Amino acid sequence: MGRNQDAGLATAASAKSLAGGRGGRGQPVADEAIFTRVHGAIVERRLEPGTKLGEEALCEAFGVSRAQIRRVLLNLAHAKLVELRPNRGAYVAQPSVREARHVFEARRAVEAAVVERAADRMTEEMFAALAAILREEHQAQERGDRQAAIRLSGDFHLRLAEIAGNEVLSSFLQELVSRSSLIIATYGMASDSECSHDDHWTVARALQDGDAAAAVTHMKQHLRFIEEHLNFAAEVEPPVDLKTILGAPAGS
Amino acid sequence: MGRNQDAGLATAASAKSLAGGRGGRGQPVADEAIFTRVHGAIVERRLEPGTKLGEEALCEAFGVSRAQIRRVLLNLAHAKLVELRPNRGAYVAQPSVREARHVFEARRAVEAAVVERAADRMTEEMFAALAAILREEHQAQERGDRQAAIRLSGDFHLRLAEIAGNEVLSSFLQELVSRSSLIIATYGMASDSECSHDDHWTVARALQDGDAAAAVTHMKQHLRFIEEHLNFAAEVEPPVDLKTILGAPAGS
DNA sequence: CGATATAGGATTGTCAACAATTTTTATCTC
DNA sequence: GAGATAAAAATTGTTGACAATCCTATATCG
Description:
2 copies of one chain form a homodimer. By secondary structure, chain A is mainly alpha-helical. Chain A has 2 domains: 15-92, Arc Repressor Mutant, subunit A, CATH 1.10.10.10; 97-234, Four Helix Bundle (Hemerythrin (Met), subunit A), CATH 1.20.120. Chain A contains 11 helices and 3 strands; from the N terminus they run H-H-E-H-H-E-E-H-H-H-H-H-H-H. Chain A is globular and about 55 Å long. The two termini of chain A are 34 Å apart. The structure holds a DNA duplex.
């Protein structure tokens, strides 16, 4: 298998990237646990877009049956983090430019609503929890821990949705935040979450002041800023399979 | 269980409700086709909330294997139209009051964004297509075809999302519209889509005039009107299983 | 009579072998 | 050597049997 060059993309998933600290061979784990691990690995970018997720490999990594892995892959596909190509396996999704734009536009809509409601419901304790996340995020950035920084940046947004108290919006945002991470992995941004840290504080402060309008504005600006700093020139169009296309003329 | 009274809830799914006109026994159909059929049956309220969807029954209805049915049920659960209770089967979901409120709040957020964008992109042809849907909806209501009226009312909202041109918002709205139908099935509204018909025209006209602000306002009013006319007093709380709860004390 | 325990039947969950497809490797021709 | 052809290996998709769980009906006891 595998030109072993490893130019940095689309290599096969190694068990180590997924199964976590303890070597694979553990007792059977629940679907949810496996989902969370793979989800985490993708969102924290230990698995690059395009990476093949072979069923056998995943079975060994987690020590479970193929049926279970298959279910998890179906769920990941539903979360738009994995693309299932019939008869040829599961791959970490490679969002298109179009998809990326739609995700960020949707985020502006969803997070505007979230922030508006969060402004009303914010209490001292909630703000303290938010601030704690932001401090942790800052520390992670300082010490160069990219994975933690990504996770905490996402946590900030998701916590706002939690404060807003709407589970539907929360679940939408969960999907959008995860997909955003994949988008940023695909379309660059050198120091992605770094630039956003101050924005986060701006939003948080507006919320503390109960200034919903300002919070909404800052959130929208924040999201637009990220989108505008993506490098969409680098779209890796799926190299259309000429053999398949030309092999079946329109007639038959 | 099985009080055969059939007060109108939670009866078992009959094959006829699902397999459509032709008697079940057809050639193997794709997952998507089965999904669409069950989805349609739920949204058009031929399957009441709480109805059990037995695997064997579905297999016979569609003439496919259990594995395939299981996959479809997983997808329906993901769409929040079906609830999977471990070891005891799949049931048409019974949204809680809380869930219902969240769905409508999310709709206001998503559809406000949709309408705003749709106002910019609306062309003559698009408006004509919208108007056609509304006329069909009106006719369906006139002739008392509730199922068609439900479908067309949903189509109006989904078509707006299509016009807005954002696939992410479209998929969110698709979920929300379907869930709304289930919510209305659960919490009443005598003539649900009837009252909304005029609202639809009001929104459409504002969009034709390119008046985004008015369209947003009318859409939000429309959605709030529906929510406020639901009968939340009738919540059928899941009768908590005392045996299970008390049978396992915190210790063991 | 009501409640609890038990056995039987039905339903869901899981696994391993089999079939179908794709990818790789090897071979042959120009 | 480039390209095409065909066998071999590897991977995905499906099926059917088995195990585990739950529901119902019957029997037993207070």
